[in-house]
Amino acid sequence: MNFTVSHRFPIDVDGFWKNIFFDDAFNQRLYVEGLNFRACEVIEKTEDADGRIIRKMRYEPRAEMPAAAKKIFGDAVAYTEEGEFDPKMKRWRFRVIPGVSTDKVSISGELWVEPAGENQVDRVCRNDIQVNIFGVGSMLEKMLEKQSREGLEKAALFTQQFLKQAHS
Q: What average pLDDT does the segment 122-145 reach?
């Protein structure tokens, strides 16, 4: 299942990457305050001389799940996101690895920003979710898509508020 979501932010392209996407303090606030996650931590982050950034984050959302999902994932779900930023293309490619059923669940995608006027960008996030579990795969894909869309929407609102406060 593939889907793409876009949100506008009052910031320029370089500011988005530097002051939002790769800012550890902002991400901590975003995940814990804005998204109400139980936990969020940067496990690893390296930046090459050419601007390439590799980051691994672990986070634990508070998400309501259907009974079928709880049987597979348990009550507390933790994910690890591994990603790489290409400084020439200015794109973040990622994969999200669930704490369980890693051989049956595949979540990956790409995130980029497009200029949308003076000090405005559209953040575009393309996602691919595949769940290969007989009988419940399609239902779990729809659940994960819904959670991803809702999370991206909440993250956008939090980020827009943050940027509004930073400029006032």
A: 93
